[in-house]
Input
Amino acid sequence: MAEIEKDPVSGRDTTGHSWDGIKELNTPLPRWWLYTFYVSIIWAIGYWVVYPAWPTLSGYTEGVIGYSSRAELANELAARDKSRIVWTDKFSALSVEEISKDSELLNYSMAGGRSIFAENCAPCHGASGSGIGSYPVLADDDWLWGGAVGDIYTTVKYGIRSTHEDTRLSEMPNFGDEGMLGETQVSDVAEYILSLSGASTDKASVTRGAEVFAGECTSCHGKNGEGMQSMGAPRLSDGIWLYGKTKQNIISQISKPKHGAMPAWVDRLDDVSIKQVSVYVHSLGGGQ
Amino acid sequence: MNGETNNKNQQVNTSLYSKHLKVYPQRIMGTFRRLKWMVLGTLLGFYYIVPWIRWDRGPGAPDQAVLLDMAGQRGYFFDIEIWAQEVYYLTGILILGAVGLFLATTLAGRVWCGFTCPQTVWTDLFLWAERLIEGDRNKRMKLDSGPLTAAKAVKKITKHFFWIIISLLTGGAWIFYFVDAPTAAIDLINGSASSTVYGFVALFSGFTYLLAGWAREQVCIYMCPWPRFQGSMFDEDSLLVTYEEWRGEPRGKAKNEDGKKIMGDCVDCGLCVNVCPTGTDIRLGQQFTCIGCALCIDACNSIMGKLGRPGNLIAYDSISNQLSRAEGKPAKKRFFRPRVIAYVGILIAVIGIMALSLATRSRIEINIQRDRAPLFVTLSNGDIRNGYTFKILNMESQGNSYILRTDELTGAVIHVIGIEEDGAKEVVLNVAPDSVGSFRVFVRMGQKDLEYKSNDMKFVLVNLKTGIEIEQETVFYGPDK
Output
C-alpha cells in the first residue's frame, strides 16, 4: 500500500508512489482548472438534454427544444426570402426592359446577377462572360440570338437547342457531308465569307464563291452576310468568329457544322433570378 | 533601503505562488479622496452624457454627436466624420494617448492609474457600494470570516444585486456609443433590441462585474502591462507618492523617560496600508503594486494631524527632493526636464499633423478597378473595349455631380451602364450625399489608334459645382502588337 509522506524540503505531501526509490510530490490540479472542468461536465449534460446529442439505433436523441441545423438553414433561407420580398415583388411585376431602365433595380440586378452568373453561367461562358472556346463571348456586341435585354431573357429562359419546347432552335445544314456542295464550292464560299470582313486573298475564288453564297446561304445569313438573329444565324461580315477565323475553320463549319447548346434555365432558376442574370449579361458591355 | 530599519513589515512574502489575500480598503477622508470623488463624478458624467448629445448633420445623417456606426462604417465626432478607410486617424489618437500618458507619468507618476483609469474608477464605485452595505474594513473582515448567517446572506445578496445593477448600467451605456442612443435605450428596455446588442451589454456588464467587483487590484498587479514598465517613465524629478523614510524611521511610539521623542515620525499605525486599494505598504519604497492613488497621503496626514506632527510624511515628492531634504539641503524641484519637453514636443507635433490633415483632407475619393476577365473585348467593328468598375466616394453631406472623361488616349469614348448616352467623350455621374456611387464604365476606341498592348490612360473627374479635378491613372489593354 502506498504510503503518503511529507517531503522535508518543500513541506508538501508525496503521491505515495515510489519508482526505484524515486517519489513524486503530489501536485493537485489548480482549482480554477478543476472547477472549469466540472462546469464543462454540467454544461455537457445540459447540452445533451437541450440539443440533439446521442445516436440511437433508429435515429438520435432530439433534445427538448427540437433544434436541427437543417431546420435552422431552412429558417434562414425563408428569412432571407422574406427580407428580399420588397425586391422580388418588383422583379416579378416588371419586365426586363423596365428593370434595366430603373437605376436602383439595375444596380440590384448587376450585383445579384453577378453571383447567379458566376454560379451557373461562368463554367461555360467564362468569368464576366469572357467566353471559353466555342462558348460565345457575352461581353462583346455580336449576338447570335439578339442582344436586346428581352432577347437575352428569352435565350436564358428557354435555352438554345435545349429540351424545352419553346427553345431557340436552328440548324445549319450539313453542306459538305451530305454532298450539297462540292469541295471546291465549299472552299470558294469560305473565301467569299472571308472577303466580307476584308480577310480574303484569292479574288477569283471570291467571285465564284459569291455565286454559291447567293444561292445557298443568303436565306439565313443575309444578302451581305449580315446574319439573322431571329434564326440564330451568325453575322459573317465582322471580325468575331465563334469557331475560328481561319479559312480551314470556316470550311469545316460549312461542310460539317458544329452546334452549341444551352440548357433552358427556366427548369433550374426562378423567374426573378433569370431576370437578374439577363440584365447582368446585358450590362456586360454588349447589350443593345 | 537601510538595513537597520528592517522590521516585520519589510519581510514581504515573495513566493510567486502565494495565495491571494483579499484586500479590504478602509474608508478615508482627505484632499485626495475628495479629488478622486470629483474625478470619478466627472468621468462617469462624461461617460453617461456624451452619447446623448445631439448634433444636427442635416437630413439622412445621424444626429448623435459622438457615434461609431459599425454597420455604416462611419465614425462621427461632432463636425468630424471619419470613413472606414480614414481609420488611420485612430493611430493619431492612440499616439496622443500614449504620449500623454508618458508625459503625465513623468510629471506626477501614476496619476492615470490612481485617478482616471476605468479600473480604478469602477473599483471605487463598487467599493463604495460594498461599504454602504457591508460597512467599513473591520466590519467587512469580520463578516467574511464569520459563519454564514441569514444577516450575512442578505448583505451579500444585496451587495451583488447593486453590483449587477451598476454593471448593467455600465455595459448598457457602452453600446450607446455604437448605435443611436434614444432608440437603443427604448429598444433595450422593451426587449426589442437585437441579440447582438444584448450580447454586448451582457459581455460588458459581465466584465465590469468581474473586474471591478472581484478582480480589483489583481487587474493592476497581474493583468495590466503598464505597471511593468512605467518605472522607466519616472526620473528622479517625477512627483511620486513617497514615504519620507529619512523622517519616519525608526518607526514606533516609544518615547524615552522624559517624554522626548526618540523614534521617527512614523508611529507604525498601519493606516496607510489599510486604506490602500491594492494592499501596498508604501513605506517599503517604490513598487509596481502602488497605483499612485494617494489615499495613503490622506491617511497619514490624518494621523499626523492628530499627533500634532508635521504632515506629508507620505507625500507627492521626487526622489531628488527627498535626497536633498534628507541631507538638510534646500528643496529641489525641477519641472522642465528634457523628457518633459520632448513629450510636449511630440504631443504638439502630432496634434498639429492631425489638425492639418483633418483640415485639408479630401472629401472625395475614387477607386477604379479594371476588369481582368476579359482583359479587353474586341467588338464586331474591330474596336477594342475595356471595362472598369468606377467608384466615387462622396464624403460630403450633399449630393454631387461630376463630369467623367478620359485623358491620354485619343479617340476614346465612354459608355456608362444605366446611362443611355453611348459613345460620348464625357459623361455626367451623380452621387448621393455621403455615399459611394458605383458605376460600370466602358471605354472604347479604334484598334488602329492603339499604340501598345498596354496603354497608359487617365480618368479625369471634375466636380460640376466646384470645378475641382481629380485624376486617376489606369491602363487600357488591347491585343498583342
